[in-house]
Amino acid sequence: MLRSVVTGVGGYLPTEVVTNDDLAKVVDTSDEWIRERTGIRRRYRAPEGVSTSDLAVEAAKQALQRAGRSPSEIDLIVVATTTADLTFPAVATMVQRKLGCPVGIAFDVQAVCSGFVYALAVVDGFVARGQAKCALVIGAETMTRLMDWTDRGTCVLFGDGAGAVVVEPGEGQGTPADRGLLGFSLRADGAKQDLLYVDGGPSSTGTVGKLRMQGNQVFRHAVVNISEAILLAAKAAGVEVADIDWFIPHQANQRILEGVARRVGIDEKRVISTVADHANTSAASIPLAWAEGVADGRIKPGDLLLIEAMGGGLTWGAAVIRL
Ligand code: UT7
Question: Which amino acid residue places its CA nearest to atom 29 of ligand 1?
Answer without folding.
Answer: 153
